[in-house]
Amino acid sequence: MTLKKINPTQTESWKKLSEHFEKTKYLTLTDLFRSNSSRKTDFTITENNLELDYSKNKITSETMKLLVELANEVELKDAINKYFSGEKINETEGRAVLHTALRSNSEDEVIVEGKDIKPKIQTALRKIRAFSNKVISGKWKGYTGKAITDVVNIGIGGSDLGPDMVVEALRFYRNKLNVHFVSNVEGDHVSEVIKNLNPETTLFVIVSKTFTTQETISNANTIRDWFLRSGSIFDVAKHFVAVSTNLNAVYDFGIDKNNVFPMWNWVGGRFSLWSAVGLSISLAIGFDNFKELLNGAEEMDIHFRDTDFSENIPVVIALLSVWYNNFYKAETEAILPYTQYLSKLPDYLQQAVMESNGKSVDRNGDEINYQTGTIVWGSTGTNMQHAFMQLVHQGTKLIPADFIGYKESLHGLTSHHEKLMANYNAQMEALAFGKTAEEVHLELKTSGDFDKINQLLSYKVFKGNRPSNALLFDKLTPDSLGKLIAMYEHKIFVQGIIWNIYSYDQFGVELGKELAKKILAS
Ligand code: F6P
């Protein structure tokens, strides 16, 4: 059973959306709010401590109705069932896509190649828990009998970005272990990471699904050489563990059989932080918090799988993004978390979104003549307000933005949090409603700058009408972070289905790797 291969632009709903776009494209958010006093409530979904307010989008209820029709016409429900039940929806690689099974607490079987994968997942989780407890408690000793103080995750792409982002995001929940990440093949990166480390008290986690990735293996070899300047080859097993599918290569490296954590080919690298790839997360925040992260993601999975599309958070944000990408021809989307803890979220999402949906051949094997994957970028508020927001407010490009906020701060500095959230709301308001020429005129007049009105008026006008989603959680916890990440994972899936592409391969990264090898050998 394969995914349906429906060209979205040939559907009835796409034609209706095109006509609807022509009719509504000049409507402004100011008009839309004026004509409907309950617009905010009408376009808000609340689910499990998350509120999505999507009222500040260039949509009417008809737009949403037609977008949901599009989701139905491309048979999204059928695709969701295939995704969750382990059908090989990654057809170009002949694999299932089952990161959802990694966080499932249900007793239902998930069958891959004729076998239930749930017991394997449970065994891996138990192993992660036992290992994390041993290292955190100090029972795991280095080669001179000392407890571990530092952990270094060696990996790149999906074997780095997810764990790195989560460890940073959940810094508040961290224990005494210092966790570092080394990814780049550039030697200064690894040199900087190891320069202050003590080999006697450092644990290295090599994360590589293939265990052949040039960057990861180069860094692992360099680090092992550095380690062997103090320890012996027999000590490697106490300081190096691996997460991989390539067992032979792992054993050749000198890693003890008992210290290898599994990866599976039904989990893509960029969706793997829920597996043993997240070992550094479990080490940094403890297994119980790691499990909370998984539980939060599972709540989002259940919401996504079981909720009607019009009330379904990942579906709604995916449809809005299709609306801007394919009808308004927006090219990029901004991810704007209002917490410094999420500073690495945009980088993480760049791989998840762009490696998945940056495709130009459809599921029929045909060249695509419509837009697919969006470019995502962003940074944290309020810092970015003093950096790139000028362009978002007054530039020539339409940039839909996700504002991610929290009702409560973690350390409890309420006066800071009030200022932060005032900015969070102010930015969205300014983007949506702008400032008219009349308002600027009055402002200049009342401030006594009468003579400057002619000169400055047009520069000070904000046209507004720029869309945003407000994603508001109660608090940044492992659970709410799990929900947020899973929400974006499902958005990626929905968009791939609509655009009729395969989201789970990444052949586009291969040519550069091959050529680099050739250049190196020449
Ligand atoms: O180059 C892209 C990629 O294949 C990613 O998809 C993956 O996350 C990363 O490389 C690392 O791969 P590995 O885990 O096999 O080292």
Break the fold down into its secondary structure elements and pairings.
Layout: H1 12-24, H2 29-35, H3 39-42, E1 44-47, E2 50-53, H4 61-73, H5 76-85, H6 99-102, E3 111-112, E4 115-116, H7 118-137, E5 150-154, H8 161-169, E6 178-182, H9 187-194, E7 202-207, H10 214-228, H11 236-239, E8 240-244, H12 247-253, E9 260-262, H13 279-285, H14 287-306, H15 313-327, E10 332-337, H16 345-357, E11 375-378, H17 389-394, E12 401-406, H18 414-433, H19 437-446, H20 453-460, E13 468-473, H21 478-498, H22 510-521
Parallel strand pairs: 5-6, 5-7, 7-8, 8-9, 10-11, 10-12, 12-13
Antiparallel strand pairs: 1-2, 2-13, 3-4
Helix pairs in contact: 1-4, 4-15, 7-13, 8-13, 8-16, 13-14, 14-21, 15-21, 16-21, 19-20
Residues 156-159, 208-210, 213, 216, 269-270, 355, 506, 509 line the site of 6-O-phosphono-beta-D-fructofuranose (F6P).
Description:
- By secondary structure, this protein is of the alpha/beta class.
- Helix content is 47%, strand content 11%.
- It contains 22 helices and 13 strands.
- It has helices at 12-24, 29-35, 39-42, 61-73, 76-85, 99-102, 118-137, 161-169, 187-194, 214-228, 236-239, 247-253, 279-285, 287-306, 313-327, 345-357, 389-394, 414-433, 437-446, 453-460, 478-498, 510-521, and strands at residues 44-47, 50-53, 111-112, 115-116, 150-154, 178-182, 202-207, 240-244, 260-262, 332-337, 375-378, 401-406, 468-473.
- The longest helix has 21 residues, at 478-498.
Structural class: alpha/beta
Bound ligands, each once: 6-O-phosphono-beta-D-fructofuranose
Q: Determine the oligomeric state from the structure.
A: single chain
Which consecutive residue ranges, at least 5 long each, have pLDDT under 50?
none
Largest sheet geometry: 6 strands, mixed
Strand order of the largest sheet: 1-2-13-12-10-11
Gross morphology: globular
Cα-atom radius of gyration: 25 Å
What is the total tally of β strands? Answer: 13
Distance between the termini: 45 Å
Could you estimate the helical fraction of the residues in percent?
Answer: 40-55%
Number of helices: 22
Fraction of residues in β-strands: 5-15%
